[in-house]
Amino acid sequence: MVSSVQISSNRQQVGPTPPAPKRADDRAKSDLWIFREGRREVSGPAMLQDIIRRLESGNALLDCLIQAGELESALADLNAPGAPAAARLTDALAVRLCTGDGDEGMDPNQLAGKIEAPETISISPPEGFTYYALHPLDFARAVEQIPDHPSKCAVIGVRSIGTTLSAVTTAVLNARGRAATRITVRPSGHPYARSAEFSPEQERWIAEQLLQSAQFLVVDEGPGRSGSTFLSVVEALGRVGIPRDRITIVGSREFDPQGLCAEDAAQRWRGLHYVCTAPSISSRFLNFPYIGGGDWRTYFCGAEQEWPESWTQMERLKFLSPDRRQFFKFEGMGPRGREVRERAFLLASEGFSPAVCDAGDGFLSYTAVEGRHLGKEDVSPSLLEEIARYCSFRSSEFTCTATHNSELGHMLEFNVQQEFGRDLKLESGQLTAATPLLADGRMQPHEWISSTKSKLLKTDAISHGDNHFFPGPCDIAWDLAGTVVEWGLNAQATEFLLGKFRQFSGVPISQQFEDFMLAYCVFRLGFCKMATSTVVGSREEYRLESAYRSYRAKAQQLLASRPVQ
Questions:
Q1: From CA 336, how far away is CA 315, in angstroms rounded?
Q2: In 222-349, at which residue ranges do the beta strands (DSSP E only) sit?
Q3: Torsion over CA of 445, 456, 451 and 454, rounded to 10 degrees?
Q4: What is the band of 28 on the pLDDT scale with cuts at 50, 70, 90?
Q5: Following CA atoms 296, 302, 377, 482 in sequence, which dihedral angle do they give, to the nearest 10 degrees?
Q6: Hey, which residues does 276 pair with through a beta bridge?
Q7: In this model, does residue 1 exceed pLDDT 50?
């Protein structure tokens, strides 16, 4: 039987992301703030009822496991009374996913009914499941690489996604006759300088595992750009007496420690045993051309000198069917994946996007459209009218019900100071929408297709407004401002676009529209700047550098028109 010990460490950071601390590694010193806090407030009982409803349907095991892991993480962060019961539910679902069977006393439906959920909880998306096509079973297969001795394992999941991954790892270890239990921990601090602490209860659990000669497995996706999250947990284990040779890190990607930007990352990583999963979710597309990592431009964007820039490492998995009639894109598993798919189906049914169907494993299959991608030279009253109609539709259909903490104003202030050395003091709540919605976030000309049937279609329209980058839920002014910037609209064309939007939607334009234009440009220059550092020496570096300069010039122009504070 799988055993979990749900003891949480509550020491987590709240509020806006702080500026990066000083560090020896210069590669990250100029990073701007482009990743947002993805947490949102939701109803705990409603989330629990959604899990129960899906369990009763009997056909959504993977989504239920991912959602149970989110609930467990949220309750563990609060040290809520229902956290141990939530951990047992995650364990039971992990066993069922990994083995196809359920242990006696671990019926998920019964376990779910025993969970007490607070009225409001804070959740964040498990990024690997949501954005990067990481399948929980990839960690089940990684168990084969874990040393056989000692056979007993103490698993430490790094919240959030490490909660589900630790349950899967523990389930497989137990199924193979290796005694394993788990806890989870939440490192805190700046993303490049995380720190981890164990609660007194966790320290006692660790001491017991050490006495039983267990090896310690630290489980999470990544490492990310800095590597500081894994390192923080390893170093916290060291402080309570666990030798480094008793620790195995289980992550989701190969990496070079020299490329990590946490302070002294390579030296701190030296000597650690690391096990990497092998991605499996794309194996069904072995005979399909891969068009992720910017390769889609080869098929859809003409000559290379005309290609738009791309942060290739951040692109979703994409494949083209051998007959080029279907375009497959990973859009997410779990609860967020369901939401994204629903948006895709709605946009397609209303004629704004290509026809789409669910392809399983978090993929959607889009019908490849015969036509051409547009450019700035295609601006016309009819095109701007259709864009205004599209923005009007989003403003009415994609409003957000969950509570979000908008950080757009803080992002703008920090990045302007970092990039231009200018203090920009915004009023409290500026750039915060009264009724936030999920913006498109990708209004560039090449994202629009003029089909051979004279129909204007929007591509890539469902996930950029709610991923781990800015803007997050916001005012529709973000997309309208993005249209003005990306299409290079003059004052007359801008007024026409905004007038048509008001006509179609009945919604007034934000009085901070120029601030939204500035925020859009500042975010995009930061995005391109950080992306450039990942493709040094390539042709992509030139495209990203060119785009960075263009957004920076526009931001500088907008700043020059503002009174000095």
A1: 17
A2: 247-251, 273-276, 318-320, 326-330
A3: -130
A4: low
A5: 20
A6: 251
A7: no
Question: In the sheet where 363-367 sits, what is the strand order?
Answer: 318-320, 326-330, 363-367, 356-360
Six-digit token string for 318: 């994409």
Give the strands of the sheet with 448-451, arranged side by side.
371-373, 448-451, 456-458
- Torsion sign (Cα): 437, 441, 446, 447: negative
Q: How many residues does the chain have?
A: 565
Measure CA of the first residue to CA of the last residue in the chain; give whole Å. Answer: 64
8 Å CB contact between 355 and 366: yes
For residue 443, give both structure tokens: 């209004």
User: What are the tokens at 63?
Assistant: 């989504």
> Is the separation of the CB atoms in 398 and 339 below 8 Å?
no
Give the C-alpha separation, 400 to 395, whole Å.
10
Does the pTM surpass 0.70? The reply is yes
Of 2, 184, 219, 220, the closest CA to residue 108 belongs to 2
**Kind of pairing between the strands at 273-276 and 247-251:** parallel
Residues ≥6 apart with Cβ < 8 Å to 213: 150, 152
Q: Per-residue pLDDT tens for 331-353?
A: 999 989 999 999 999 999 999 99
**Unique residue bearing structure tokens 């929007």:** 458
Cross-strand partners of 328: 319, 365
281 with 362: CB under 8 angstroms? yes
Tokens at 44, concatenated:
């705990």
Three-class SS of residue 86?
Answer: helix
Identify any residues that bridge with 181 across adjacent strands, giving them in sequence order. Answer: 154
Q: How far apart are CA 336 and CA 351, in angstroms?
A: 23
> What amino acid occupies position 138?
D
DSSP annotation of 135: -
